[in-house]
Amino acid sequence: MALKNSIDLNHDPRSIVGTRVLAAPRALVFSAWTDPKHLAQWWGPNGFRTTTHAFDFRPGGVWRFVMHGPDGRDYQNRIIFDEIVRPERIVYRHSGDEDVEPVQFTQTVIFKDLGNGDTLLTWHGVFPSAEERARVIREYGADKGLVQTLTRLDEYVVALAAERA
Questions:
Q1: Which of 39, 122, 150, 165 is the most exposed place for a label (fewest CB within 10 A)?
Q2: Closest of 13, 43, 10 to residue 136, by C-alpha
Q3: What radius of gyration, in Å, describes the C-alpha atoms of the chain?
Q4: Contacts of 66 (CB under 8 A, 6+ apart)
Q5: What own/partner pairs with CB < 8 Å and gap ≥ 24 does 89-92 have?
Q6: CA 107, CA 64: separation in Å to the nearest integer?
Q7: Is pLDDT at 1 greater than 50 in this prediction?
Q8: In the CATH hierarchy, which fold is given to the domain comprising 5-164?
Q9: pTM check: above 0.90
């Protein structure tokens, strides 16, 4: 299957929208989001590792984790889940509180079953302002990081699907 991946930075100056066709069934892709053991295998850009300290996958639940950068820096994160519609959609907020990375955004992740064992994943982040989105791209490389994370997720779920076949 040809690689189908895109990042849209032009439609809305406050948004980063990433899409990718994943060569795995929607239920499997969704399950890769529901267990910290799965998340540790693919979450984050190339060279990053993720350690989860708390994971409560329900509306109002919190995911506390550290992204360990390849340069040795640790990035503290807190996500609050706002909406979970299995296996279609996850909406969450990155809090940006003072004990985590100073980044605030709301993310909507949509899992669309393409009917042929593939899943179209849309990852839509909205920042408080265009300036804040620009800062997060400049300081964190969020646009490139999203492409790498989508690639890592695809590789992981393809391997899982092959194991289960």
A1: 165
A2: 13
A3: 15
A4: 50, 51, 53, 74, 75, 76, 77
A5: 90/33, 92/63
A6: 16
A7: no
A8: Alpha-D-Glucose-1,6-Bisphosphate; Chain A, domain 4 (3.30.530)
A9: yes
Of 51, 113, 50, residue with least CA distance to 86? 113
How many secondary structure helices (H) and strands (E) does the chain include? 4, 8
pLDDT > 90 fraction of the chain, expressed in percent and rounded = 93
Residue 2 has pLDDT above 50, yes or no: no
d(CA 31, CA 13) in angstroms, rounded, equals: 31
Q: How many CB atoms are located within 10 Å of the residue 110 CB?
A: 16
| Residue of 99, 90, 98 lying closest to 32 (CA atoms) | 90
Tokens at residue 113, please?
């079953």
Let me know: does 14 contact 133? Beta carbons within 8 Å: yes
Average pLDDT over residues 13-29: 97
